[in-house]
Write a structure and sequence with these properties.
Elements: H1 23-31, H2 35-44, H3 49-52, E1 81-85, E2 104-109, E3 114-120, E4 123-129, E5 139-142, H4 149-164, H5 181-197, H6 202-210, H7 212-218, H8 224-247
Parallel strand pairs: 1-4
Antiparallel strand pairs: 1-5, 2-3, 3-4
Helix pairs in contact: 1-8, 5-6, 5-8, 6-7, 6-8
Length: 251
Amino acid sequence: MADRSAEPWYPTAAYLYVLHLDGPALAWEYLRRNPDYRRDWLRHRRRPEAAQAWGLRLLEDPAWDARDAHPAWFPDHDSVLQFYPDADPPPGAAVFAFWRIPGHKCLIHDGKRLVLLVRWPGGGMRLALAPGLAEGMAYVHVIRACASASTLQRMLTAWQAHRAATGEAAPAASARSRPTPAALLELHTLQALDATLAGASLRETAAGLFGTDRVAENWYADGGLRSRVRRLVRRGQTLMHGGYRRLAQLD
């Protein structure tokens, strides 16, 4: 077995950021690994119509991972909170104050409107700003009627908690519970997919994910570890070749 410990995909620590990604961000992680998408980026990055086949408004640089990339999905994921001017604000209504929103902010134009991405340690939100919304205006936030009740509750709760911190510095760190099995599955899937794209065998991939000692002890012809790695690779390839659309709610 070749020594691949120096290759970028090998250290699991490089994938820890994946544990905190939501559906749209995970969808981008799989799409940006697609060889056909990377080819389209090189050839057609300045053609907005080329993005539509991938479920995007604009092509995004696949060299950027989800911490730096801002893919504009079409249609929007249910988790996008839309802001509009309040046509009949009550006295003392909250007003839109861009610079008082805590967290790291990134404002982009997706070809149709302004989208504000707000990130803080362990979380973040996407806010779509209506063209008529301006600093100091009373506003209403809107989420699609087809969104599930749990999505609605989660997004509004997150925004209210985040807005309550207005004027305070965003925390440098936050305590979080142990990663969920679903989050660990995405981490292992992406690592296994990268290993495969780099030409690693199933056994070499397993060594990177679970350690050489465990592979030496449990790598049998029909053993569970071998089957587990095979399933991870297959899942990653499926998500890369169109399955990401489910994560981004494009279908």
